[in-house]
Structure formats: C-alpha cells, structure tokens
Amino acid sequence: MAEGVFRQAFVEVNNFESRIRSAGLGALVGHPPDPKAIQLMMEKGIDISDHRARQLNQEIIRKSDLILVMELDQKNTIEEIEPTARGKVFRLGEWGGFDIPDPYQKEIHVFEETLILIEQGVSQWIKKL
Predict the structure, then answer these.
(1) Per the structure, how many domains does the chain have?
(2) pTM
(3) Domain span at residue 96?
C-alpha cells in the first residue's frame, strides 16, 4: 500500500515518476498483495494488483537513495545488514514520530488504520522532499 500511495503522491507533486519500489525484510517473494489491501487501494483509485513481493537485499540497499520503513526495528535491522545504509533509512512516520504496524492477516479495519498512517507519513515525506 505504501508504494502505491507514495508513487501517486510523488507524481502529483512533481509531475514526473521516480523509481519507487518496495521490498520486505521477510517478504513472501512473488506473492501479490493481500486482497484487502488491493480493495482499499482501488477505492483510492490506485491499482496495486500487479505488485509482487520482493526481498530486500544488500544490492537494493546500496542502490537506493532513500529507504523508508514502517517500524524502527526494521530501520535497525537494515543498518545491521548493511552499515552503509546509515543516514538513508528512515521510518515512513519519521516526521510524526510513529511506527506503522503490519496489517498482514488481520481484519479489514486494521488495513484501514494502517492506510491512514501510511497516508500521513507519505504526506509528511512529500513536503520534506
């Protein structure tokens, strides 16, 4: 959901696309998004149905200019995996001082709450970028 929201917001503000991709620390590689996430995003006019999960690795970390994570633990883990990532890994909720919990295998209301936090974090980051 975060990739879709961020991509749409970035294009709206900058009038061009940038390379925005998501990857997970414990990704179910090749799997599509949860149907609840697809549904919520379609309601926002964002189609994420073609997305497939990919695993974060050192190459992706090294090639990225900015890495946004959902939780502080994820930031710490990435910096342990690849110490050169320090200074380019931040929480999506960094400016608001909040983590965004993973809604995976939870009820739709948890996905809705997560999406609200994602939208808040993206809005704050778009202003900073």
Answers:
(1) 1
(2) 0.92
(3) 2-128
